[in-house]
């Protein structure tokens, strides 16, 4: 029996490694027991011998955010914005067209790489969380261990939140698989090839990670918004409690208020978040009062995904001979124009002349504009998103006082865009106020990966997407209609083939 298990594990393990899917072990090219750590006197493996080895792993988490932008930003925007009414796919590539025409299946290469990359991110966090307390280095203080462990938990929670919103039932992996022996094979096997947990269980783990991290995570630093701080954890908790499996409107509001209490403020000029300086040789600002978490780039180590979405304004003609991803939709442009919202439209969308004409005439082609150069920061969390989530929660709670408070938030954000406040008739209607909040979120947060989840959370995905071709002449016709299964992505087929304990999502 044990030999059969060992044989199956070896075969599946080889397949997993050749396809790039590492669930709990770091690849040898990065950190593993092959290059880091040793064994103690009793022969038990020590992952990290000293603080410097832990520091390398700790910094590796942040380097993952900075250097591996493909899955958590590039693909994330494709899968969230193009599956909504905000954007077209942008190219004719076989990996992206199905995102627009709703014909995704488990064979899609984008989905495959993202599933594997997210789990690899979680494995890195697990290695740090699991081993940091046992590092035999007396100079490695308990305070520093607790802080780094807290940051790793916030990292893991943030990654897991993306996964559960995309796929629903996912493996919830919180420890390393461990070494394999004939004696422990039946115990270790499920750690290498775990079954899915329910979305509710995944969200519960996310909440546990975030709440236990807050006491030890670093406080918000107004001069450095790149850290996984207490404020990041609180912002993520506000987002978690807004979602259907965990929805708790009071906690959405409470955590949003705690973010504000940490010292965050809306910037007066939206271009401070996304614009370039007057000289045109760098971004306008970093570490603004509105930014909660951002990944920063500088000359010499730039943000490579810029050229996947449009132009790099620091190198105007580089990589601009081919069509780009996440092209703004006519429906989104019409939404800006219906509000007379020129400020946010101009911060979100730009038009250039091109050599292609997939969706617009080549002499006036639309591009997303919130990532403008190789030096542009990727802003993962910002205050406007959290405030508008609070407004949404207030509307759903109901009552005149809550509707008034929600309207005040919306009007504050509209004022920055030089728009009039909401009309009194809207402020007095729960239905109209919810529509106003969601419209405000769309205009404010376009191309920041929020629209799809707003629609899903409010049970509007089918209604909005199944009528979209009737009002957006530029969108590809749907291959199949959106239905009750369309909230989730398919699990990659290669992952299902490699792990017999996983089950495909319904509808695929």
Structural summary, described in words:
The two termini are 34 Å apart. Helix 3 crosses helix 5, helix 5 runs antiparallel to helix 6 and helix 10 packs antiparallel against helix 15. The chain has a domain of 207 residues: Serine Threonine Protein Phosphatase 5, Tetratricopeptide repeat, CATH 1.25.40. 49% of the residues lie in helices and 5% in strands. The N terminus is likely disordered. The strands form four sheets. It has a two-stranded antiparallel sheet with strand order 1-2. A two-stranded antiparallel ribbon has the order 3-5. It has a two-stranded antiparallel sheet with strand order 4-8. The protein has 508 residues and is mainly α. The longest helix is centred in the N-terminal third of the chain and has 26 residues. A hairpin with a 5-residue loop joins strand 1 and strand 2. Belongs to the SusD family. Pfam families: SusD-like_3, SusD_RagB. It comes from Geofilum rubicundum JCM 15548. This is Outer membrane protein. Keywords: Cell outer membrane, Membrane, Signal.
Which terms summarize this structure?
508 residues; mainly alpha; 49% helix; single chain; Serine Threonine Protein Phosphatase 5, Tetratricopeptide repeat; two-stranded antiparallel ribbon; disordered N terminus
Write a brief caption for the model.
By secondary structure, the chain is mainly alpha-helical. 49% of the residues lie in helices and 5% in strands.
């Amino acid at each position: 029996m044990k030999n059969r298990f060992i044989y199956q594990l070896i075969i599946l393990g080889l397949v997993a490694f050749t396809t790039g899917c590492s669930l709990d072990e770091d690849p040898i090219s990065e950190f593993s027991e092959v290059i880091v750590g040793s064994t103690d006197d009793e022969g038990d493996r020590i992952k990290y011998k000293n603080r410097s080895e832990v520091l390398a792993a700790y910094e590796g988490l942040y380097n993952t955010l900075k250097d591996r932008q493909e899955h958590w930003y590039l693909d994330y925007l494709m899968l969230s914005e193009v599956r909504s009414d905000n954007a077209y796919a942008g190219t004719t590539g076989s990996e992206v067209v199905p995102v627009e025409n709703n014909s995704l299946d488990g064979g899609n290469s984008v989905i495959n790489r993202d599933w594997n990359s997210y789990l690899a991110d979680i494995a890195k966090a697990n290695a740090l969380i699991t081993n940091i307390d046992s590092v035999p280095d007396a100079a490695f203080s308990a305070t520093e261990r607790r802080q780094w462990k807290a940051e790793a938990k916030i990292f893991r929670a943030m990654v897991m939140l993306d996964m559960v919103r995309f796929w629903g039932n996912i493996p919830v992996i919180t420890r390393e698989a461990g070494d394999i022996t004939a004696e422990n094979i039946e115990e270790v096997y499920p750690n290498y090839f775990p079954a899915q947990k329910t979305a509710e269980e995944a969200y519960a783990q996310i909440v546990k990670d975030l709440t236990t991290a807050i006491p030890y995570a670093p406080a918000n630093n107004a001069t450095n918004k790149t850290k996984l701080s207490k404020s990041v954890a609180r912002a993520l908790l506000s987002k978690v409690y807004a979602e259907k499996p965990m929805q708790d409107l009071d906690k959405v509001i409470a955590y949003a208020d705690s973010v504000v209490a940490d010292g965050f403020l809306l910037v007066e000029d939206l271009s401070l978040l996304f614009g370039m300086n007057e000289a045109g040789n760098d971004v306008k600002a970093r570490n603004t009062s509105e930014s909660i978490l951002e990944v920063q780039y500088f000359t010499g180590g730039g943000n490579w995904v810029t050229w996947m979405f449009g132009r790099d304004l620091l190198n105007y003609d580089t990589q601009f001979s081919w069509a780009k991803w996440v092209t703004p939709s006519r429906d989104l442009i019409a939404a800006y124009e219906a509000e007379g919202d020129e400020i946010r439209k101009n911060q979100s969308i730009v038009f250039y002349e091109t050599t292609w004409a997939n969706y617009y005439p080549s002499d006036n082609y639309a591009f997303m504009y919130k990532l403008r150069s190789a030096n542009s920061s990727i802003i993962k969390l910002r205050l406007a998103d959290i405030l508008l989530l609070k407004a949404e929660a207030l509307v759903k709670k109901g009552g005149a006082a809550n509707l008034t408070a929600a309207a005040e938030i919306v009007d504050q954000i509209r004022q920055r865009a030089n728009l009039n406040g909401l009309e009194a008739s809207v402020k007095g209607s729960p239905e109209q106020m919810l529509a106003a909040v969601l419209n405000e979120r769309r205009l404010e947060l376009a191309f920041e990966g929020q629209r799809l989840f707003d629609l899903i959370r409010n049970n509007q995905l089918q209604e909005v997407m199944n009528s979209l071709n009737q009002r957006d002449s530029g969108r590809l016709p749907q291959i199949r209609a959106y239905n009750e299964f369309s909230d989730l992505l398919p699990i990659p087929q290669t992952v299902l083939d490699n792990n017999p304990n996983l089950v495909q999502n319904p509808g695929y």
